[in-house]
Amino acid sequence: MKLLRPRFPLLPLAAGLVVALVAPAHAEDLLQLYESARAYDATWQSAKAQYDANLFRAEQAKAGILPSANLGGGVTRSNFDNRTQGLPPLDRNFTTQSATVSASQPLYRPANLATYEQGKRQVELAQAQLAAAGQDLIIRVSQAYFDVLAAQDTLAFVRAQKTAVNEQLAFAKRNFEVGTSTITDTREAQARYDLVTAQEIAAENDLRVKKLALDALVGKPDVQPNPLALPLSVPEPQPADVNAWVQQGEANSPQVQQARTAVEIAQLETEKAKAGHKPTLDLTASYGVTRNPNGNATVAANTRSDTGTVGVLFNLPLFAGFATQNRIRETLSLEEKAQADLEATRRTIAQAVRSAYFGLVSGQGQVKALEAAEASSQSALEANRLGYQVGVRINIDVLNSQSQLFQTKRDLAQARYNVLLGQLKLRQANGTLTPEDLTRLNALVAR
User: Which DSSP letter does residue 104 get?
Assistant: First the structure.
């Protein structure tokens, strides 16, 4: 009896489903979504506001080395009652008006000078913190972008697999009806179809969740990211030396810069503590006017007195109950802690750079291996289909070959996204990640 030929879906069907799902009419590329996130993301806006606040706080440190001026004034009403024996009683009410302008200029205040230097370091610290927040935003946008693309690919491949399994199920039923196969083939195909249906439901929900996450990040509803332009060619990391990347991390990492600046701030704090033993010298000046429009206690006529002073104020601390000595010990310990934190940060960054570098190299090798596995899985599926038609293979062999092919396709798509994201994470690890890297990556997406 002649076997019925199965109507298996051609592989272009899977590619067609991918394009249909991931190439909507109003798609946006990675750079556009990054710019949207910069204007909307609350985490980034918080970091930017903190940066501005840190700049203003650093500016306050200048006050200790700049002159200060004050204006004061007052009006008092007095009653003078003199009852001296042998003299006529004197009872007089009078008003006193006064105004004073005073100014001071520090000439020698080592603690204030150290505070001023700390303010400048605070600016550097704020810049490093903002740079780290900016790099984090790039990674978060890219991660959400590729998560959506990966979820779309997974759903497309699951649906393509569902179509292929459905064809296999129909073929098994027809063969059972004509008596060329057993009910086992039909039940195996039905079980695989039910499994793929469950996978489709999970993939649909995963895509929904991933799209909601991207929408929340960029502040737009129903964002449609552009897919990758295939075939994809990802260049090797340059320089191709992990130690060179580690050295760049030592010089450019915002985390290392923050730790290094923290050491300098701690050293200046020690200088401030040591200043507790040192003298201070200020230049002072004042000018005051005092008026009694209706006289005072001794004179009944209108009086006015003007007083101007200029001088130098010297102060030398002698003893503060050992507070200064213990403060110095405290700051020296904190300085030692900052040094240890810097070393720990350097080691952490070096480890992160190495992990990111080797992860990227491994990912690129995985992409090449999966591309070869895809071709092999395609050949295996075709061989099993032919073997099933001529009776040397059973239905489960074809179903397993289909599952292996579509699983390989999903793994390959995910590996490509991991490689692209890995390039960004490598640059984040060594502190060289900038929006220009998104521009170069954006050239790999379809238009």
Answer: E
Task: Reduce the DSSP state of residue 1 to 3 states and report it.
Answer: coil
CATH class given for the domain over 12-65+110-278+321-442 = mainly alpha
Residue 356 token pair: 């990111």
Reported pTM: 0.84
**Alpha-carbon distances, residue 250 vs 44, 338, 434 (angstroms):** 25, 17, 17
Query: Structure tokens of 36?
Result: 């949207």
Cα 8 to Cα 4, 90, 190, 385, 397: the distances in Å are 12, 124, 16, 9, 14
CB count within 10 Å of CB 171 equals 25
pLDDT in tens, 5-43: 343 343 333 444 444 344 444 678 899 999 999 999 999
CB 126, CB 261: distance < 8 Å: no
What is the rounded (10 degree) CA torsion for 139, 142, 145, 150?
Answer: -90
Looking up tokens 């200060």 gives 68
CA pair distance 143, 417, nearest whole angstrom: 9
